[in-house]
Design brief:
The protein has one helix at 3-22, and strands spanning 34-60, 65-94, 102-124, 127-151. By secondary structure, it is mainly beta. The model is unreliable at 1-28 (pLDDT under 50).
């Protein structure tokens, strides 16, 4: 093998790589997912129609933080009232803090009286949210619902 030839092709390869990185539409490294967690409180009731609302704070690994307003609405065969204090949500598939805002779809089965623990998995495109927490109240049934997260300014 000719050492000059190897160097020449090595430099040509390096120049080609540098050139293609400047071309429009060239492949870029994917933005890594952020680690984002939400701490929240949620209170609600259901009598066939289910509604809950609350507030929380989302903190991401890049240092961004946002206060959020939560709402959950849906229907199904449910009855009861509930309260979740100090709940935790863990997001996956997040590229920026703005990805956490919007409506998530869920389906869950519930049963509990007085004190209980629960978990719920939600999805919004490529972003997923796993909620967990303990609370009190009475809730019995099966429901499908929409869970929404919006920026919260602290006023109603």
């Amino acid at each position: 093998m000719n050492p000059k030839r190897g160097t020449r092709f090595g430099l040509a390869g390096l120049a080609l790589t540098a050139l293609t990185s400047w071309l429009p539409g060239s492949a870029q490294a994917a933005t890594p997912d952020l680690t984002c967690k939400m701490h929240f409180n949620l209170h609600g009731w259901s009598a066939i129609y289910k509604t809950s609302s609350g507030t929380g704070t989302v903190k991401c690994s890049d240092g961004e933080t946002a206060k959020v307003k939560l709402s959950q609405k849906g229907g199904g065969l449910t009855a009861g009232k509930s309260s979740i204090e100090n709940g935790v949500g863990t997001f996956s598939g997040v590229k920026s803090l703005n990805d956490v805002f919007g409506s998530y779809a869920s389906a869950n089965a519930e049963a509990g009286a007085v004190k209980g623990a629960g978990a719920q998995a939600l999805t919004k495109g490529e972003v997923n949210l796993a909620l967990s927490g303990t609370g009190s109240g009475i809730n019995l049934g099966v429901s499908g619902s929409s869970f929404s997260i919006e920026p919260y300014s602290g006023t109603k």
